Amino acid sequence: MAADLSQLVKAYDVRGVVPDQWDEPLAELFGAAFVQVTGASAIVTGHDMRPSSPGLSAAFARGAAARGVDVTEIGLCSTDQLYYASGSLNLPGAMFTASHNPAQYNGIKMCRAGAAPVGQDTGLAEVRALVEEWSETGGPEPAATTGTTTRRDTLGDYAAYLRALVDLTAIRPLKVVVDAGNGMGGHTVPTVFEGLPLDLVPMYFELDGTFPNHEANPLDPANLVDLQQRVREESADLGIAFDGDADRCFVVDENGDPVSPSAITALVASRELAKHGGKGTVIHNLITSWSVPEVVKENGGTPVRTRVGHSFIKAEMARTGAIFGGEHSAHYYFADFWNADTGMLAALHVLAALGGQDGTLSALVAQYDRYAASGEINSTVDDQTARLAAVRAAYEGQDGVTLDELDGLTITAADWWFNVRPSNTEPLLRLNAEAREEAMMAKVRDDVLGIIRG
């Protein structure tokens, strides 16, 4: 009986409940399939702190080695540390993590050599087809010679590489609270921050894949509450929260107020453009604030707007030779990091920007946070297509209003815009709205929600 992977293999990765949806024997088949699809003679693997991660990662390595491929295991790591290993060693890589999902989940983020993404259109569909076939036939033929498996510690090299990309030598002392959410930030932050003029206040640095304190998903405001309170109690200069696999970072200012990922995107874009002589392309998805393309242009750069999703961002970065890319979900992509996303490098930029002047973070980011935004609002609907069509009908043909369908439906006027996108995996429509004034944003948001929710 072939395994049913329809609920397990997503658009960009493998993700599901262990052992209900997948287990170590299936992970072994994924390892064999991955090396066949990539044509690799050697790969690198890493894993997060979830209880099932070491076993799944080892099984994947066995499957690859059985096909004659040499495996470098870097063990416990953040996702961007795995991307560092893939880029610096020029090897395809596999990271075992379910990011911010609950403890019973696990998954695989795969990349080709140089951290190039593997998604449905770039090899993941072929991997899935092979695993389904082999689960029915009993597996692939083993190679004549089994590949070797070696351990390698890359944490120090990863930290040194990031530190070389951002000059932090002249910053003033800063007090920073970091909430690792019991995820991989607890593994990477102490080494990356070592020796910097930072008074580090650690929260939940103990690696614990059962997430005893709160979910490791800072996109949910409920998971920032502890950090916000601690920043105020400590009179800290800022707070930083990482998600479970520590590839995304969220920032709160000295008052404990969240700084929007759009403002961080604009801040980092301005710094990257300065580093490149005021020239370069910056990628942003269509949910980021109007302020992002404005700041990019003001700093001499060329903004390019894309669909939501890391595969689209990375593809556009490669196509345009972009120096940086940012998303509303706090993923930040750097040409200096093989076009891959690294929240840690974004965090270092924020520390360098704040520490390079005497003002507060709230004052620093005010120049990048220019508009009133709704944030992402999800609505469960019976018929995504019909509700989207109803929104379109309500605005199409109005004077001064433009419409585009790059990703869902975006309606733009002189003083406001909104985007409605269907979820690929759930019966949801996602609304993001922004306006020049708070009252106008609230009106647009409520008008559109009235149509979506009937």
TrEMBL record:
Cofactor(s) demanded = Mg(2+)
Alpha-D-phosphohexomutase C-terminal domain location is: 376-449
> InterPro entries annotated for this entry?
A-D-PHexomutase_a/b/a-I, A-D-PHexomutase_a/b/a-I/II/III, A-D-PHexomutase_a/b/a-II, A-D-PHexomutase_a/b/a-III, A-D-PHexomutase_C, A-D-PHexomutase_C_sf, Alpha-D-phosphohexomutase_SF
Q: Indicate the segments forming the Alpha-D-phosphohexomutase alpha/beta/alpha domain, all copies.
A: 7-135, 157-256, 263-371
Q: What is this protein called?
A: Phosphomannomutase/phosphoglucomutase
Alphabetized CDD domains for the sequence: PMM_PGM
Q: What is the lineage of its organism?
A: Bacteria, Bacillati, Actinomycetota, Actinomycetes, Kitasatosporales
Q: What superkingdom heads the lineage?
A: Bacteria
Keywords tagged on the record = Isomerase, Magnesium, Metal-binding, Phosphoprotein
Family of this protein: Belongs to the phosphohexose mutase family.
